[in-house]
Amino acid sequence: MATHAPEKVTLPDELLSFVEEWRDKPGNLIMVLHKMQQIYGYIPRAEALELARVMDVPLAKIYGVITFYHYFKLKKPGKNKIQVCMGTACYLKGGQDLIDEIENLIGIGVNQTTEDDVFSMESVRCVGCCGLAPVVMVNDEVYGKLKKGDLPEILAKHRGES
Amino acid sequence: MKNVSCYINDIEVTVPEGTSIFQAAKEANVKIPALCYHPDLPAWAACGICVVKLEGSPKMMRACATSVGEGMKIITHDPELHQVRKTVIELILSTHPNSCLTCPRNQNCELQRLAADFGIREIPFEMNVPEIEKDESTPSIVLDPEKCVKCGRCVNVCQQMQDVWALEFIGRGDGTRMAPAGDIALNDSPCIKCGQCSAHCPVGAIYEKDQTREVVRVLRGGEKHNVVQVAPAVRVAIGEAFGYAPGQISTGKLYAALRRLGFDVVFDTNFAADLTIMEEATEFVERFANGKGKLPMISTCCPSWVDFMEKYNPELIPNFSTAKSPQMMMGAMVKSYYAEKVDKKPEEIFHVSIMPCTSKKYEIARDEYMYSTGVKDVDVVLTTRELARMIKSAGIDFANLPEEEADPTLGIYTGAGTIFGVTGGVMEAALRSAYNFITGYNLPKVEFEPVRGLEGVKEAKIDIQGTEVRIAVAHQMANARRVVEKIQAAEAAGEEPPWHFIEIMACRGGCIGGGGQPHGATDEIRKQRIAGLYVDDKAQTYRCSHDNPQIQAIYKEFLEKPLGEKSHKYLHTHYTARKLYQR
Known about the structure:
CATH architecture of the largest domain in chain A: 3-Layer(aba) Sandwich
Number of helices of chain B: 18
Radius of gyration of chain B: 25 Å
Structural class of chain B: alpha/beta
Number of strands of chain B: 17
Number of domains of chain A: 2
CATH architecture of the largest domain in chain B: 3-Layer(aba) Sandwich
Helix content of chain A: 40-55%
Number of strands of chain A: 5
Strand content of chain B: 5-15%
Distance between the termini of chain B: 49 Å
Radius of gyration of chain A: 18 Å
Distance between the termini of chain A: 41 Å
Strand order of the largest sheet of chain B: 2-1-5-3-4
CATH class of the largest domain in chain A: Alpha Beta
Oligomer: heterodimer
Number of helices of chain A: 7
Strand content of chain A: 5-15%
Strand order of the largest sheet of chain A: 2-3-1-4-5
Order of helices and strands of chain A: HHHHEHHEEEEH
CATH superfamily of the largest domain in chain A: Glutaredoxin
């Protein structure tokens, strides 16, 4: 029975001590889930099930939260996270063209990850530097005043680093 | 409690403080339309159809979620409210497939009724119906999320009433769905198949898995010996589908209808309930008086409760009665004892049960013990709702049917058997017999009032020859959880268990409120159905299972004695710890 059930996993001490710190505080679930995403880059299924057990919270409740907020990811992201800004300024300055061009170059749309796990792309609402519109962030680096033609070089640079 | 007086469209009503405007209007015989509100559940304020106004204020508030205040002047109907409600209904319809004619809830749908009442003739908004696949993974219920109106009833039922947490709101905005956690099939989730979501769904988004065609095919085929059993709670509810009041006892007409549908033999699950009592009460006496086995002993007639326990509390497995449910005992007896009598092989018999329950569909293939005769002991389970549809489509005029009798071999029952369909009934029936088994004579008064009624957890003490027996009865899974927690706490503290014998039923009110019963159950209706079963109890010649002459015959001719060798082969089962999530 239950042959394809998720394997039992152990959560890292960093997360477990965070859970203890927050255990009796209101709003603890979302704080712990933030921490979990920080550690794994997303909310992995087996780990979420174990977290449900540790926190004595139904898994359904965890999924209610992580599917409500766009911030949480259910799938493992690529090694390099491309964030294309679609805030008002970037949108007007052609953010969508950048998304289309990235799809053209590496074959993934928004919220997708390349087969080799090197890149994943998402669209975000304003990264806080509208003066540089249109803006793309790759990991922690900001690229502003971008033209489509700038993208191959940026992607190549991060591919090389990964 | 303090009372407050208010005005509903100038009609003065006095209601207890805290009453919602919705309920207060009901008192004034004013119907406020609503879609998400259900009296079993906390007000959710999701649909926005029950909006009302206060005199002198343009603000609209939701009648379900607003309490009345002293002197409040409430307007429930005016042209503006009508227009707002109509627009909301049109908006809901614009996200709802226009497939009423082929929907399982056709003519019995709360949204359809609203559309009719409001005279909706067109949908002025662009249609936006999501394409989402049905989930048919469980043997009991089907999820059709395309039809979901996001009223939230199923989620609240699953989480608050049942404490099961199989369903949750997934996503947000117009992408919200009711689904198990994380893109898995319902059958891989903690779902216990109780079907309360389907009983509360206002539309056709959750419904029982329909197996009527399968049954009709076999009945028409003429190759099998067709045997049917009908559960206690069905007889006091099926009449509702034919215009009778809830609680009306339709046993005789039900037998007649089943024969007209083509069943060769009609048996009554109530007989099997008597048989269950013989085994279960004996088992209890063994544990209680002779110290053989763990206490408290917990009843196992409810497959949803069994499923819940196997997933959430497998440590209680030693406390579970090993007696099968009446449905499964009947199945085993039909294909062994009865089969021998009529010289048939088990595989020549097609055995259908009519149940108030969606979970019974799961139970018949739960594990290998459900095949005790070498084949499936019960072939197909139909819910009360499915049977009502079959009767209608076969052109049977239910109201004018003659009253018939069940076939006697496995069809004679006692009052103890019939109250199995109500919370507290299994306990009451078991006590009637356990008392006799210990003392040698029947209780002077067989009615045991403390276990009756809709209180979530009922406790009582009974004196059997100077020994105190402590019992508890719980219905609706969230209440069962409270009982389980108390047992665990006593065990952890090294104390004696708080009770010796516990009955648990997953649905509110017991099987009479089952997930497969006619739609629209509220406490009002549950009470009427319950009253019907107690009337049926009183009307029986025998009130105690061990007095049933047919029960005495089956032990004499076939089973020999309770907990004997044959009983173990046919009438008892085992339990397995199961994972909460299969994936």
